[in-house]
Design a protein that fits this description.
The complex is a heterodimer of chains A (about 220) and B (about 450).
Chain A: E1 2-6, H1 10-22, E2 26-30, H2 33-42, E3 47-51, H3 59-68, E4 75-79, H4 84-93, E5 97-100, H5 105-119, E6 126-129, E7 132-135, E8 140-143, E9 146-148, H6 152-163, E10 168-169, H7 171-178, H8 189-201, E11 210-213, E12 217-220
Parallel strand pairs in A: 1-2, 1-3, 3-4, 4-5
Antiparallel strand pairs in A: 6-7, 7-8, 8-9, 10-12, 11-12
Chain B: H1 11-60, E1 61-64, E2 67-70, E3 86-92, E4 96-100, H2 109-112, E5 123-129, E6 135-143, E7 152-159, H3 161-211, H4 224-271, H5 276-301, E8 312-314, H6 315-329, E9 336-341, E10 345-348, H7 351-368, E11 372-381, E12 386-393, H8 400-406, H9 423-433, E13 437-442, E14 448-454, E15 457-459
Chain lengths: ~220, ~450
Amino acid sequence: MRLLVVEDESLLRQQLKSGLERAGYVVDDAADGVIGLYQATEYEYDAAIIDLGLPKLDGISVIRQLREAGKRFPVLILTARGDWQDKVAGLDAGADDYVVKPFRLEEIQARLNALLRRAAGFASPTITCGPVQLDTSAKRVSVHGANVELTAYEYKTLEYLMLHPDQVISKAELTEHLYAQDYDRDSNVLEVFVRRLRQKLDPEQTLQPIETVRGQGYRMRAPD
Amino acid sequence: MVTARLGGYSLQSRLLVAVTVLLTVFLGLTGAVLDRAFRNSLETGVAEQLQVQIYVLLAAVDEADGNFYFSENLREPRFSQLNSNLYGFISSASEGELLRTSSALDIDYETLGLNHDLAIGETRFGRLRTKAGTEFFVTSYAVTWENRLSPILFSVLESTDTIEAEASNFRNSLWSWLGGLAVLLLILQILLLRWGLAPLRRLARDLKKIESGQSETLDPSYPRELSAVTQNLNLLIQSERKQQSRYRTTLADLAHSLKTPLAVIQGELGSHTSDINQASLVQEQLDRMNQIISYQLQRAVSTGDTGTLARQVNVASVVAKVARTLEKVYADKAVVIKRDIDTELNFLGDERDLLEMLGNLMDNACKYGRGMVAVSASLASTMPPRMSLRVEDNGTGISVPDRERVLQRGVRLDTLAQGQGIGLAVVVDIATSYGASVSVTDSPMGGASIILEFDNIRIAD
């Protein structure tokens, strides 16, 4: 999952970035509204966290403009004042949720999870794809009710695929949304992760939940 | 109605009363003076006529053997007609009546009581009321007559009836003219007043427009006398708005500059959890600081501004805004917010304050309820307008002992229980600054029902 964090206070921005990276997100950051808006419109993100009090271009304008540019990814606003005028204005401009400063990282993660899941069209925190169940809040995966232990990267890969069921996800897209920018795109790490995932989810090779679409990418098969 | 205070009368009615009094006094005095002058001139005319008649009598009277008689026909025919209103008498103090004209045959001399104490050669004009009640103008002239000792009095009398009738005719027509003039002047005066006071009425209308948010400032095209006032009012309105927005900007800056470092500390705390005890202590203090700052900042939003220049905010539209926001935020909970707001209700005050109160109340209802929230606003009474605003949910409600506590104003934040929000305390503070009352009851939906009652309400036209 690739996130954009737009926050002018550098310490807070760094904390958010490193905290979210530890939680397995790929995080880009911007220190002001103009750069933030540029990044939000130029790159593909899964979600953005935008502070309302930004220099150069305020948060509400950033949100309004990126919505006008056709960007549909969920936006979480950070507000220092926390008054309702700000919250209402932010959500009216196109944001999806708010967090009042100061906040705990866990709170941001919980809100982000819910937003990402909702954006993918899932109402409950548990996503089911045939026998495979993924609990986005507990970050747990089970197959036919039995827990499956996954590494953080394996989990992220599966989560992204399951949030986009029946869609062909190219390796480039997966790489972009799962790994930091400077990652070597030519490596075969992705293939390794997908192979390991298939082994863990389906050791008997009877379910085959992840399809390979030759020359295009992977597809999570939704049950018929 | 109760007696109106002196300041309560309108300018128009003050001026009208003043002008009416002035007109009454002026026209009344004019009438009295004219009436008096006319009567005087009438009486002077009568006196002159009677003087002439004295000479007529003198010329025609003669005496023989102590008896007076008319030696020739009197040149005034009215002396010869019975009861012609013109009568002549010749008399002396000692002998009484000596001769009368034939017009006076019906008149009883004794009842006349003619005054005989005139000096020789003196003429006197005056009024005379007989014992029978008839009133006459009388001119008397005293002369010495040849061998007689006492002076002889020649008197001519004329009844006052004709003169009185003439005077009263004049008086009637005079007063009807003056009355007509007064009515005409009053109508003119009302028209002039309306024209003259029109700018003031326009000012009132313009102020109303500012109040309802239809315009920002007063029109500069007022008459010279008012423009000083309107310009100053404009400056006042502008400076008040500037002041308010400056105040809010300062608060926003303050919030940003206080809360961002708090967020940094919070973040650091999250990543260094080596000493659990220490971390929880710092966390506790951090939470307290945050609560205090949030509470004071949100409370400071409130201006409690219900002055005449307060803007009015449509309650239904503010509720709709908050509901839209909360439906997004609580999408996972699939909260249903039922709204039943009288669309004619307007809140006189700052939109931020109403947003803050509704936001906190409805947020609590979404948070603590089980997915059902109802917001309703209606007129509790029309004179004076009073709005009852109710936010209900289907949660577990607020227990009776807790109600008193959550409604306390300016509750000390360090006494708040863990996890208890500052939302309701902020609502109570803002509502109280508008003079509203806040109460908590059970909702028929099962949860809590918070009721605010406001007086600063205007019903839309």
